[in-house]
Amino acid sequence: MELDGRRFLIVTGKGGVGKTTVAAAYAMALASRGKRVLVAMCNAKERLSTMFGSDLIGTDVIAIGPNVWAVNMTPEVALEEYGQLALKSKALYSLLFDNKYVRVFFRAVPGIQEWAMLGKAWWHSTERRGDGSSKYDVVILDAPATGHGLDMLRVPKVIVDVVPPGLLRRDADRAWALFRDAKQCGVVLVTLPEEMPTTETIELASALTKELGMTIARVVVNGVLPPLFTHDERERLETLAVEITDTGTSALASAHARAVRERVQADSLARLSKELPIEPAFFPLLFEDAATPKAIKDLAKRL
User: Fold this and answer.
1) Residue 59, burial from CB neighbour count under 10 angstroms (0-12, 13-18, 19+)
2) Band of the pLDDT at 92, cuts 50, 70, 90?
3) Taking Cα atoms as reference points, which of 82, 13, 5, 9 lies closest to residue 39?
4) Where are the alpha helices (DSSP H) in the chain?
5) How crowded is the C-beta side of 127, counted as CA atoms within 13 Å?
6) What is the C-alpha separation between 41 and 6, in angstroms, rounded?
7) Which CATH number does the domain housing residue 17 bear?
8) Residue 288: which pLDDT band, with cuts at 50, 70 and 90?
């Protein structure tokens, strides 16, 4: 798997395309190769525990499977952890920051909540064990959906550009260098074989590469149907105007609908292959629940 060498993976895409499913599959696939993997979610409606059959995942890092750990970050807890790390004292942090006025101030600072979570995920990639080795070989950030996710990834660049030298800028500079290092970090774009998600994915890829200088490591098209019809058969079926009156026309109407969906899928896949810098990978449409350990294991095998 071509992502093996990278230490930080950012999984993002339009809402509802299956980002967490893809993050879970990559985590399981990498872990099966002996990697120690941390999945960091951003204040998410937590579903990862169902996919691994683990305990619910909160703001503390927990083990959810062999070689896999996870955390569901919130801005408030992430900011508190960052403050304690920066000041190297929980008591000093409480003295300076544990009051409602300072908390209101930090909530009002543009980008600080996004940086608290993104910075926490990055910090986990720097953690070491007692023998000096990395605590996690790979950190997978299950990032917010497209617009919010892009805004989050812009934050360290803004900090580097405008914040005076100091601890905040130093850490943002280190994180920003990692995010732009193609050997260490890559973005995994997740989409569906449909018109709107395809368009949004192409636009997101352009912003990530041209504006932020980040590397698209993989494009995963989720929910791909196996084609039943040839191109000519699809064209003929699409021309049919079917009014359902009996079993025969009902079957024909179903074939018409399937042909339309296959055509949209084929057009979407062609656009992605043409306009993105990397050939897409495909996850099949699962007709059973994808949020199960068995389904994630099956998807991981495809990687």
Assistant:
1) middle
2) very low
3) 9
4) 19-32, 48-52, 75-87, 90-97, 100-108, 112-124, 146-162, 167-179, 195-206, 231-238, 247-275, 293-301
5) 19
6) 18
7) 3.40.50.300
8) confident
Do you know the residue count of the chain? Answer: 303
Domain tally, the chain = 1
Rounded to whole angstroms, the Cα distance separating 53 from 30 reads 18
Task: Give the burial string for 166-177 (b: 16+ CB within 10 Å, else e).
Answer: eebbebbbbbbe
Tokens in use for 19?
Answer: 């980002």
What is the rounded CA–CA span in Å between residue 146 and residue 180? Answer: 18
Token representation of residue 122: 């990055």
Domain of residue 193 covers 8-224+279-301
**Tokens linked to 176:** 């920003």
Assigned token pair, 278 = 């990397």
150 phi, psi to nearest 5 deg: -65, -40
Question: What average pLDDT score do residues 154-176 get?
Answer: 89
> pTM of this prediction?
0.89
Does 147 fall in a domain? yes
> Would 91 be classed as within a structural domain?
yes
What is the C-alpha to C-alpha distance for residues 191 and 12, in angstroms, rounded to an integer?
9
Secondary structure (3-state) at 265: helix
Query: Cα 148 to chain center, whole Å?
Result: 12
Tell me how far apart the alpha carbons of residues 124 and 206 are, in angstroms, rounded to a whole number: 28
Dihedrals phi, psi of 189, to nearest 5 degrees: -90, 130
End-to-end CA distance of the chain: 6
Amino acid letter, residue 68: V
3-class DSSP assignment, residue 3: coil
Distance (Å, rounded) from C-alpha 298 to C-alpha 295? 5
Residue 159: burial class (beta carbons within 10 Å; 0-12, 13-18, 19+): buried
Residue 174 covered by a domain: yes
